[in-house]
Amino acid sequence: MDSMIERTEQGSEELTAVLMGAVDAARTAILEFEGGAADRVVGEYLGGALEDPFAVTHRFLATIPGYQGWQWAVVVAAHPGADHATISEVVLVPGPTALLAPQWVPWQDRVQPGDLSPGDLLATPADDPRLVPGYLSTGDDDLDELAAEVGFGKRQVLSQWGRIEAAERWYDGDYGPGAAMARATRKVCRDCAYYLELAGSLGTLFGVCANEMSADGHVVAGEYGCGAHSDTPQPATIGSPQFDPFDDGVLDLTEMPREPEGEAVEAAGEPAEPAAEAEEPGAEAAEPAAETAEPAAETAEPAAETAEPAAETAEPAAETAEPAAEADPEPAAEADPEPTAEAVEPAAEADPEPVVET
């Protein structure tokens, strides 16, 4: 028994050596199969792998243009006790770095959401689990009751499985609570005035957005949210109030209206007459000083004081000269200045010597 096991192991080693040594025979088989030059068909030897006790696969790098990364696989076989191997198969197989075409996908599995274009026809599979015949219950009590009252029937209706699948897709989509927009705000759609709930059982979780600045026309989850919520307050006022611009570098030049030359001359000459008339109170005040000798010193100071008011009254008189000239210029011109001159003379004749004696 032991001798038989030893003989089998010895025979397997000899057979494996014959199979692994058939590298040149495998290369020659590739050249015969391809029918081209060796340097343009087969490259370096990559090694061999024992498939079973009687077969080995030898691999060579393929150098065929357009097949970069592909390999030649040559299967050789031999029976126990044989002194050489025979060629069983020569094939070209892709290696780990080979450029391959995408894996083939059936047409019904190839169509993706968004592929439907205007004019395309997309048939519903006969065994689509999302649809059930219209005479069956949809599983939505509110929808079934409404359809019965209105008498509205469809050939096929959405099954409970179809509604659950749609709800999961909407909830996990771009308008669900897990979206980046929803995570960036604390407000939710179910409290928003723009949120229109769906009818039936789906209305407990979903609605349609009516805000044109947000997800307008899309089905959104009630837990979805955005920054355009109807309860979003106005931002607090910051900064300074807005004023109208003012250019400091612009000067407004206005030309004053010119008076006629005749009126300007009359206005310049008329103020002298009222000023002369205003001096009369000063002259009259000087007479009491000449009549009394002893109190003359006491009255000299009041006389000087009264002279100043007389001079002061001359200025208002000059200011009021223009209205007087405009109102009635002729009477002002007829006024006789002689009495004014006579009234001044007594004031000049008054002798101030008694004032010196006291």
UniProtKB/TrEMBL annotation:
<feature type="compositionally biased region" description="Low complexity">
    <location>
        <begin position="283"/>
        <end position="324"/>
    </location>
</feature>
<feature type="compositionally biased region" description="Acidic residues">
    <location>
        <begin position="348"/>
        <end position="358"/>
    </location>
</feature>
<feature type="region of interest" description="Disordered">
    <location>
        <begin position="231"/>
        <end position="358"/>
    </location>
</feature>
<dbReference type="Pfam" id="PF11228">
    <property type="entry name" value="DUF3027"/>
</dbReference>
<protein>
    <recommendedName>
        <fullName>DUF3027 domain-containing protein</fullName>
    </recommendedName>
</protein>
<feature type="compositionally biased region" description="Polar residues">
    <location>
        <begin position="231"/>
        <end position="240"/>
    </location>
</feature>
<feature type="compositionally biased region" description="Acidic residues">
    <location>
        <begin position="325"/>
        <end position="339"/>
    </location>
</feature>
<feature type="compositionally biased region" description="Low complexity">
    <location>
        <begin position="265"/>
        <end position="275"/>
    </location>
</feature>
<dbReference type="InterPro" id="IPR021391">
    <property type="entry name" value="DUF3027"/>
</dbReference>
